[in-house]
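Hi both,

Apologies for the delay on this - the queue was longer than expected. I finally got the magnesium ion-bound model through. Below you'll find the protein sequence and the ligand SMILES exactly as submitted, and right after that the structure tokens for the full complex including the ligand.
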Amino acid sequence: MTMLHTTELTNWAVDLIDVHKTYRRKVKALRGVHVQVGRGEVFGLLGPNGAGKSTLVKIMMTVVHPDRALGTVLGRPIGHRGKLGRIGYLPENHRYPGYLRGEQLLDFYGALSKVPRVQRRKNAAYWLERVGMKDWAGTRIREYSKGMMQRLGLAQALMNDPELLVLDEPTDGVDPVGRRDIRLLLTELKGQGKTILLNSHLLSEIELVCDRVAIMKEGLVARQGPLRDLTERVLGYRVRLGGERAANAARIGSMSEKLAAMGARIEDHVVQLASQEIGRVNELIDLLRAGGLLIESVEPRRLSLEEVFVEVLGAGSHVGAARPT
Ligand SMILES: Nc1ncnc2c1ncn2[C@@H]1O[C@H](COP(=O)(O)OP(=O)(O)OP(=O)(O)O)[C@@H](O)[C@H]1O
Ligand SMILES: [Mg+2]
């Protein structure tokens, strides 16, 4: 493997350059992927089923061998195992041995990462508590539900107090309160300076927690950047009315033709304008004010991450990577 990018030159926690992977000489899972994750950043890897997200993560974790890959993970060339002890990894579809108890599993993984025994015990108790599994510590894993397995997997990934946390669909199968807890935990870990790389299909969750995202499509990165930049475009405006409902309805009724001519739609106490032009918004405000209406707020309506995702991938859901030929 080429070692073009040396440790000193990159400030990225993860710097993946031109990553290629073909499975069984047939399935082109990755076709030249570039992904950069800054230190201390929460990064979301998105894309439809089969886009290559898990393959990319497995290459980082040295579980899958790439055909070609440049770049670094925590300053070491990809494929180098030296820093694995500083990474926490929650794989997708993990299957832990059912005969182990939760606390035993954590101890085992802590040992793999060379965490000293006394510290392992402390860490296991701490993380079991944090993921809401304290009462299940002594229960065999085979008795865990799907969401409990996932919580345990997250605790497992944190046992070595990692610099970099790589989570492949961490909230898959977790209930809504659990998902919220996980989100808060991730935010807390970010506050401690940890870097988090996250795969998820739950775009609303990604939107709440990620600084930057990459949208993968058929083995390539189709879009990458700060979440704010991707969702910056204004689609229209929402003008919320104040005052009394019944009186407002009467006033709006008397100006309904003019509103319709402007392309404004009224729903409840909100007037929606599909135009991106600020001049049109002001015309609308003038009209509403002249009609005796009070304005409570004016807000731009921006793209949601889901809308960006659909736009990037094109309409219609299809499985991502190239089929075997
Ligand atoms: N071990 C394997 N052997 C053969 N093909 C594989 C293997 N693992 C993955 N693939 C193929 O590689 C492509 C990318 O799969 P990958 O698991 O990376 O996608 P993904 O983006 O993680 O999808 P999902 O959202 O469903 O988890 C798919 O076409 C998949 O069928
Ligand atoms: Mg996957």
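Main takeaway for now: The first strand starts at residue 12 and ends at 23.

I'll put the files on the shared drive as well.

H.
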